[in-house]
Task: inverse folding
């Protein structure tokens, strides 16, 4: 059968895709690789908007391990925490959780229903991974889309979930090793005890890895002077500008019309004043109108001067030398902006610093002047040294929408600063701690969170 005939037979295409996905799942070398296939490659069989994979232990502990389109899963993200509550509530029904079926939102608590509406998840299909021998659920795949899932699609997904569950169970068998025989000779036992006693005196610097980027130090924010739309941008992104250079201008049609009307109104007021002054020579009783008309002239002159000032403000110029940092020009042309809205910023390329986002789960005690090393993505083999000078007390949402502590550091070598916009990984060093504390800190924190100690 040629390609055109195959394209006309959607059932054959779906069956071929199913067999390919089963083959890729059975050849996966780890649960991470299998999870990536489950949340991303299943889209080749049936379209969906998003997918998430969770693991379920014998004790009922749930962990979101993979989300489609995301390299790492932040357990503290609002959507992940809501998803955790949804799965925890759904698996309470032991009979329904063993079958592939859509989750019904009307049977959920109000707190979970509000999240359903907030994140606009649409229809959610629950696909469990059943252990091939034990019969218990090892993991679950959730598929999100706006359209209703048909029975034929659920049937096809049932075959695929069996393959995923079989591959998942098979991977659990890898890595099993024969138990090591106990040491019987007293010499080796004594040697081990001495080694453990000596290792308690070892100390190591506590450290944490955090996404980092090179940003400008004290940049000048250039904002819109008034409400309007961007008419023209006179420079290009990352262009060097001098003080007084034109940066951008707003649409001046409305202000030009106001200026013309103000000029005409002023001319009429002046004509009325002149006629009243001439009339006062013949009719002294009409001199009372002169003061009122002169006040109107002054008012029209002030209005004309105000509109002229607004016309000048529509053209924004640079207040200092630097590099203009903003997105593509076409992203701003014709875009409506409000007064005070940021359009770009001017940065001195000789004044750069390091901005780091420390994950909440990996946070350590960040002290001023702590040493920092930056491994740039463009040159990871030559780290740059920096010194920490600021760390936030409260976690905040990063541009990628996950919780982290913001930290800033100054580069040690000011003569060879990286350019603004480069990204990499920063390593922040803390105080010296015992090696056992260093190794057991995160497991102990996880244990305390799970047991509530």
Result:
């Amino acid at each position: 059968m040629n390609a055109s005939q195959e394209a006309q037979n959607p059932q054959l295409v779906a069956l071929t895709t199913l067999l390919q996905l089963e083959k890729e799942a059975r050849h996966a070398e780890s649960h991470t690789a299998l999870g990536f296939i489950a949340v991303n490659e299943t889209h080749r069989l049936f379209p969906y908007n998003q997918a998430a994979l969770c693991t379920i232990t014998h004790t009922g502990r749930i962990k979101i391990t993979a989300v489609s389109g995301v390299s790492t899963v932040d357990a503290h993200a609002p959507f992940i925490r809501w998803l955790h509550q949804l799965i925890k509530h759904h698996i309470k029904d032991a009979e329904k959780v063993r079958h592939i079926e859509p989750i019904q939102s009307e049977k959920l608590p109000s707190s979970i229903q509000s999240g359903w509406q907030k994140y606009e998840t649409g229809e959610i299909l629950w696909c469990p991974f059943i252990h091939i021998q034990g019969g218990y659920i090892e993991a679950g795949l959730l598929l999100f889309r706006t359209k209703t899932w048909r029975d034929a699609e659920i049937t096809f997904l049932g075959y695929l979930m069996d393959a995923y569950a079989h591959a998942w169970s098979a991977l659990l068998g890898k890595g099993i090793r024969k138990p090591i025989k106990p040491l019987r000779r007293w010499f080796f036992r004594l040697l081990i005890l001495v080694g453990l006693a000596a290792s308690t005196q070892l100390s190591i610097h506590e450290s944490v890895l955090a996404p980092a980027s090179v940003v400008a130090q004290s940049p000048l924010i250039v904002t819109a002077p008034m409400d309007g739309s961007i008419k023209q941008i006179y420079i290009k992104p990352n262009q060097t500008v001098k003080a007084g250079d034109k940066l951008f201008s707003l649409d001046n049609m409305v202000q030009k019309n106001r200026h013309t009307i103000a000029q005409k109104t002023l001319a009429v007021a002046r004509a009325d004043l002149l006629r009243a002054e001439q009339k006062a020579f013949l009719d002294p009783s009409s001199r009372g109108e002169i003061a009122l008309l002169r006040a109107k002239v002054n008012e029209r002159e002030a209005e004309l001067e105000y509109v002229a000032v607004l016309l000048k403000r529509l053209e924004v110029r640079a207040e200092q030398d630097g590099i203009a940092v903003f997105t593509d020009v076409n992203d701003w042309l014709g875009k409506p902006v409000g007064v005070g809205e940021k359009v770009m910023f001017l940065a001195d390329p000789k004044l750069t610093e390091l901005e780091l986002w420390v994950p909440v789960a990996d946070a350590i005690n960040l002290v001023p002047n702590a040493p920092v090393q930056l491994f740039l993505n463009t040159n990871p083999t030559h780290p740059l040294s920096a010194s920490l000078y600021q760390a936030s007390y409260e976690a905040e949402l990063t541009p990628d929408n996950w919780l982290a502590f913001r930290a800033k550091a100054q580069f040690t070598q000011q003569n060879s600063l990286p350019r603004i916009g480069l990204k990499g990984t920063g390593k922040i060093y803390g105080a010296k701690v015992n090696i056992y504390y260093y190794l057991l800190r995160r497991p102990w924190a996880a244990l305390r969170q799970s047991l509530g100690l």
The mean pLDDT is 82. The longest strand covers residues 203-216. The two ends are 65 Å apart (CA to CA). Residues 253-282 form the longest helix (30 residues).
